[in-house]
Design brief:
This protein is mainly α and about 160 residues long. Helix content is about 95%, strand content about 0%. It has a domain at about 115-165.
Length: about 160
């Protein structure tokens, strides 16, 4: 029995030594693989970094171009909408202005204030009457009264001013 125990103890020592050697060898290989990977990464790292920078710049340019296109489209849409709204508002403003003018005209008419057309008709009528008076005075040979002359001149002036305006 003692021999078996001695054999098994020496076998265990061999196995432990063998296992220890294998672990050391594996650790050494892992270490060397790590050093190799580090050297390779260091060597090719700059190449990879440069290619990533180039790819990033390309993507950035594409993104900026797409963003500028979208901004341009939005600007055009807004300009079109502003033009449409402006034209609609202008049309509404004209309608409102006409309604206001009509109501003011009606209110002034109710108060008895003559309109510009009424005054123009009266001026034309006064001018016609002045011409008739001048013709009659010329036929009778009598000189027209100075009050008539004074009244006829401003009326004629107002009529010619209205026509030129």
């Amino acid at each position: 029995m003692v021999k078996k125990t001695q054999k098994s103890a020496s076998a265990e020592k061999n196995t432990a030594a063998q296992l220890s050697g294998t672990v050391k060898e594996s650790a050494q290989q892992i270490w060397l693989a790590g050093l190799g990977a580090f050297a390779k990464a260091q060597e090719e790292g700059t190449k990879v970094f440069d290619s990533l920078v180039k790819e990033g710049m390309s993507i950035q340019r594409k993104t900026q171009a797409a963003a500028e296109e979208k901004i341009s489209e939005a600007t055009n849409r807004m300009a079109t909408m502003a033009t449409d709204i402006s034209s609609k508002a202008s049309g509404q403003w004209d309608k409102l202005e006409n309604i206001f003018e009509d109501r003011v005209s009606k209110a002034l008419n109710k108060l008895g204030v003559p309109s510009a057309k009424d005054i123009d008709v009266l001026i034309a009528r006064i001018d016609e009457l002045n011409r008739n008076v001048s013709k009659l005075s010329a036929k009778t040979g009598a000189a027209p009264r100075s009050a008539t002359n004074g009244a006829a001149k401003p009326a004629a002036k107002r009529a010619s001013a209205r026509k030129s305006a």
